[in-house]
Design goal:
There is one protein chain. By secondary structure, the protein is α/β, with parallel strands linked by helices. It folds into two domains: 168 residues, 2-enoyl-CoA Hydratase, Chain A, domain 1; 283 residues, 2-enoyl-CoA Hydratase, Chain A, domain 1 (Alpha-Beta Complex), CATH 3.90.226. The chain is 44% helix and 19% strand. The chain contains 22 helices and 24 strands. The two termini are 49 Å apart.
Length: 591
């Protein structure tokens, strides 16, 4: 009875918070409309303007329609934190806009994956081909931010600032000692010697196979990182490698000495340089246009095309059921793929995958729908983002062409299951005991209140092995390989995009533009328009349909800012994955 009242109370609190949040949204929308009348964001860009890129936020694959995802409660203004799709679109638009003279790239923290940064970097390289300038400046510049900035014509940092160039490291978090102290046993079933997703629950450090794969991954990514910077800054590869390896950049002056930065300047001095580049007499006449504002400026008019290429965004964990906009729900994606299949105007499908995997069942459901799209004669191209591993690779393996960035994390062809035994925790820590009546030998099979028997453990391990064999067969069929070869590059091992290309797991290196060009060619199109799936919910309807968990997440995101992803990961620990999983290594952070 106590549990009942707690559940009712929690539900009432969640509903109340949702109502309060909805009222708050109403007033913010009204404020936004009024401020929009005073200072319209859709005004045409003035002549000799500079596009201001501040990318120090978590960049999603596509721009969210969620009002609160782009709202800064401190300033009571919309941040317009655009997704990768619109960042690329606007840089491309600026290259053709006579009113934009160049780009000012503001440097700082950059909490994004290497493939996301790679895509923006490549677009800035193309932007420079228009003859316009790219100028970068920062005060504390992380190495990811510097990788992006290194393509700029001029790079400046503050005279008392800091440039971080130290090489890459990956940190994994382990929970075994904590579980031991709580007397919780992690009963683990896995297939693949490199399948390290369960290691945080089994060990207090990396296994040797896992250390080997992470080391080789970082070495490959680091080599690409050094190579690209050296080429952009016209430096010798070995010399730059030595600078980074030995942490030679310790003071701002060192960055200038080693030609990684052009000059040490304060912001007002940078403004003076920008004014000179845009033909202004002084800095106060500079015309900056933010990326969010520029997104609302009219670009070149294009003819309406009836032929369409669908872009399906698959970002986040793969989960059973509907899921939400932060993950890949099999039911929601099945519906989207059915819509794509039934639209005669859609001539090709590009699936943008940024996922470390998840539910094996959900992955299989999605793969079935993807193959039904192919069966209708629609070419399917996969574009891989930061991560397309395990279940993320599973849903990609039947594509006509797979495109990955050089530093995409992919592969991880392996399977695992996990069932905690919390009997010791309940009995010895909480004083809770259980007594069970069974009708049927396995009627309580799967309980977390006791250890598995040897036979039960064997049943679960056979299930994992069976799904791993199916995974290998799917990849072998989709990629035209033997099962034995897939096993040799599988075993749960992660690869970079470059390594995956060498192993035949991907076909081409590149970004979304490459994938769209391939889709256009395969569909025999001259012109087309892009339509995005799954369709995003109307922001107001989404808000009013939210429960207490979603409201709590919104408030935590506002309070924690850049630390919000850590909170999300800790929340995931409360929900141990059910069913057999296809996931990449758990909580690996690359610095």
């Amino acid at each position: 009875m106590g549990n009942f009242f707690r559940l009712v109370f929690a539900s009432l609190i969640g509903s109340l918070l949702s109502f309060v949040f909805a009222i708050l949204l109403f007033f913010i929308v009204i404020i936004g409309l009024v401020s929009g009348l005073k200072d319209p964001k859709v005004a045409a860009v003035k002549a000799n303007s500079v596009l201001h890129l501040d990318l120090s936020y978590e960049i999603k694959e596509r721009t969210s329609k969620d009002i609160f995802a782009n709202f800064d409660f401190a300033s009571m203004e919309a941040d317009n934190n655009l997704g990768l799709n619109d960042i690329i679109k606007n840089i491309r638009k600026a290259a053709e806009d006579d009113n934009i003279k160049g780009i000012y790239l503001e440097l700082g923290m950059m909490p994004n994956g290497l493939a996301t940064i790679e895509a923006i970097r490549n677009e800035l390289v193309k932007f420079k081909e228009s003859g316009k300038f790219v100028l970068a400046y920062g005060e504390v510049v992380t190495q990811k931010a510097y990788y992006l900035a290194s393509v700029a014509d001029e790079v400046y940092i503050n005279p008392v600032g800091y440039l971080e160039l130290k090489g890459f490291s990956a940190q994994l978090t382990f929970f075994k000692n904590m579980l031991d102290r709580l007397e919780i046993k992690a009963q683990v079933f896995y297939a693949g010697q490199f399948k390290s997703a369960t290691e945080p629950f089994r060990y207090d450090r990396m296994s040797e196979p896992n250390r080997k794969q992470v080391t080789e991954y970082l070495t490959d990514v680091y080599g690409h990182f050094i190579s690209e910077i050296a080429a952009s800054r016209k430096l010798d590869y070995k010399a730059l490698d030595s600078i980074v390896f030995n942490l030679a950049i310790r003071q701002p002056e060192d960055a200038v000495k080693y030609k990684l930065v052009d000059e040490l300047l304060y912001f007002d001095q940078v403004q003076a340089k920008l004014a000179e580049k845009t033909g202004k007499d002084n800095a106060k006449d500079l015309e900056f246009v933010s990326l969010g504002t520029y997104d609302n400026s009219p670009g070149k008019k294009t003819d309406f095309d009836s032929d369409k290429i669908a872009v399906l965004y698959a970002e986040g964990n793969i989960v059973d059921g509907d899921g939400d906009e932060d993950n890949i729900g099999s039911a929601r994606f099945r519906k989207a793929l059915q819509e794509i299949r039934e639209d005669d105007k859609i001539k090709a499908l590009v699936i943008r995958v940024n996922s470390g995997g998840g539910s094996a069942l959900a992955s299989e459901i999605m793969l079935r729908e993807i193959n039904l799209v192919k069966a209708k004669g629609i070419p399917v191209i996969v574009s891989m983002g930061d991560v397309a591993a395990s279940g993320g690779y599973y849903i990609a393996c039947f594509a006509d062409t797979i495109v990955a960035e050089p530093n995409t994390i992919t592969g991880s062809i392996g399977v695992f299951g996990l069932l905690p035994d919390m009997g010791g925790f309940f009995n010895n820590k909480m004083g809770i005991t259980f007594d069970t009546v069974k009708v049927g030998q396995y009627s309580d099979f799967g309980t977390i209140t006791r250890s598995l028997t040897a036979e039960e453990f064997s049943i679960l391990q056979v299930g994992v092995d069976t799904i791993y064999l199916k995974f290998k067969r799917r990849v072998a069929e989709g990629r035209g390989m033997t099962v034995d070869y897939v096993d040799s590059v599988g075993q749960g091992r992660i690869w970079t995009g470059v390594q995956a290309l060498e192993n035949g797991l991907v076909d081409v290196l590149g970004g979304m533009d490459v994938a769209l060009d391939i889709a256009k060619t395969k569909a025999g199109l001259k012109n087309y328009r892009v339509v995005d799936y799954p369709k995003q919910k109307d922001p107001l309807a989404k808000l009013f349909s939210e429960g207490g968990d979603e409201v709590e997440a919104r408030f935590m995101k506002m309070q924690l800012g850049e630390y919000y992803p850590m909170w999300v990961k800790m929340q995931e620990l409360k929900n141990v994955p059910t069913g057999v999983q296809m996931r990449m290594p758990f909580m690996m952070e690359v610095y």
